[in-house]
Every structure is written in C-alpha cells, then in structure tokens.
C-alpha cells in the first residue's frame, strides 16, 4: 500500500496521506513520500492545482511519536535523528510553498501539531465542519516550535501564541475567523467543495498563477516600497506573456480566450 496515493482529475492532482492506522502521522516514510510527490509535481506542466488530503478518520495527527521515541535508542539519545527529522519536515513545508501550483488542504477530523503545520503551509484550506486544529505538543512537554513557523504566518500572533502555550484545540468556526482555513463545509460535501475550488484555480492561465504564487510570498517578506517595485516587475513580465495579451483581447472582444497552456 503506497504511503501517499495520487489521483489526477484533469489538471488537478489529489495527494492523499495513506496511513490511516497511524492517523496519517508524518513519519520518516511519509515525509519522504510527500517530498518525492511534491518534487514530481513541480515538474508536471499538466497539473495546475493540488489537493492534499488524508485517508481514514483524520487529516494528520502530526509527527509519529512512537517512531520518535524509538529514535532515542541512538548513542546520542536521538539528537541527530531529531534534528534531521525536523529539518526534513521543514523542507517539505517549504516545498509546498515553492510548488508552482496552488496547494489546497482538505482537512477533516483533526489536524494537530505538524498536521496543523501542514494545513497552515498550504496556500488554501477547506475543512469539514467539526474538524479540530491544534498545536498541542506543549501538553506532553514538547513546544510546537516548527509548527509555530507556519501557524504564526497564518493567524494573528497573540492567538497563535495562545494556541501554542495552552495546547487548546480550535474548531472550524474559529479557524475560519483566524484565517487558518478558507471555509468549513459539511463533511459529506468536503471532497466536492475542495475539488470545485481546485478546478476553479486550474481553469486560470497557468503561467499567470505560477508567477503570481511566487510573487505573493516574495512580497510578504519585503518592506512596502520594495514590494511595490518587485510586483511591478512581476506584472510587467506577466503582461509580456502572449497568453496574457490574448486574455485581455478576449475580454475586450467579449469572448473566451484561446490560451496555449
């Protein structure tokens, strides 16, 4: 049974974490599989949107604590293993951000610790009503420092800090309010609603979305003046695309654009 199942529907790829018996924990094997799939997608010109889902009862329960405990058997008590694990997990989260295609988390059940980090690392997120989110490592004496990176870049800092220091869960209504997810939908509609969002994105000009996603994250790290200068350059490059010229002409002519993707 593959650790991750990929299913393509037109220009949308769905990656499903497929270890339900371990609550889709981000084990060594899961991180490796996810990294491999993201690398393949980054080169796939036929895919224009990606959905990240979880099999079974939950989306993702974070790191595999049993596997981490076994790592303590090393001579150094697991220090090298833990550093490598957290660095590889961070690399996967950054690969999601670097992926040319928008990535949408399809969350259900729970998304805890590194699982919440995974949701926060995606460009958008749709959740089933009743899903719970938390960075609850502090409850077992492990502050969620790496999940904090993605979380604090999604929700206001005081609310993020409260979640990190109390270990409390938030529901989908609160997750929407804080900006961790885009919307909550009935559980029975989760897959269809997420796919509808992905297909809407996939229908846009791929070149424009790719350049736009990269610029979106780049400008967030810049001072205001630099951000405007940078995005002005980005829009100029975008305007020079033949497909963009066709899109504008089609709009003015009140017809559908004939893009060559």
UniProtKB/TrEMBL annotation:
Pfam families: ECH_1. GO terms for biological process: fatty acid metabolic process. Keywords: Fatty acid metabolism, Lipid metabolism, Transit peptide. InterPro entries: ClpP/crotonase-like_dom_sf, Enoyl-CoA_hydra/iso, Enoyl-CoA_hydra_C, Mitochondrial_ECH-domain. One of its GO terms (molecular function) is hydro-lyase activity. Belongs to the enoyl-CoA hydratase/isomerase family. May play a role in fatty acid biosynthesis and insulin sensitivity. This is Enoyl-CoA hydratase domain-containing protein 3, mitochondrial. It comes from Pelagivirga sediminicola.
């Amino acid at each position: 049974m593959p650790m991750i199942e990929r299913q393509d529907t037109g220009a949308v790829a769905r990656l499903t974490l497929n270890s339900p018996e371990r609550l889709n924990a981000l084990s060594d094997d899961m991180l490796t599989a996810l990294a491999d799939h993201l690398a393949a997608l980054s080169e796939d010109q036929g895919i224009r949107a990606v959905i990240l889902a979880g099999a079974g009862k939950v989306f993702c329960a974070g790191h595999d604590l049993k596997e981490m405990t076994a790592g303590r058997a090393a001579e150094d008590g697991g220090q090298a293993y833990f550093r490598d694990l957290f660095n590889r997990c961070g690399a996967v989260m950054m690969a999601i951000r670097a992926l040319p295609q928008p990535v949408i988390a399809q969350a259900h059940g729970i998304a805890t610790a590194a699982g919440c980090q995974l949701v926060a690392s995606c460009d958008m997120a749709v959740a089933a009503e009743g899903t719970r989110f938390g960075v609850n490592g502090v409850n077992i004496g492990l502050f969620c420092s790496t999940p904090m990176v993605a979380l604090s870049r999604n929700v206001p800092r005081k609310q993020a800090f409260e979640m990190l220091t109390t270990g409390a869960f938030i529901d989908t209504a609160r997750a929407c309010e804080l900006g961790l997810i885009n919307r909550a939908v009935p559980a029975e509609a989760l897959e269809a609603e997420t796919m509808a969002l992905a297909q809407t994105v996939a229908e846009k000009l791929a070149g424009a979305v790719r350049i736009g996603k990269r610029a979106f994250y780049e400008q967030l790290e810049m001072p205001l003046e630099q951000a405007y200068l940078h995005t002005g350059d980005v829009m100029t490059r975008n305007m020079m695309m033949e497909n963009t010229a066709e899109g504008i002409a089609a709009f003015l002519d009140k017809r559908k654009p004939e893009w060559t993707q």
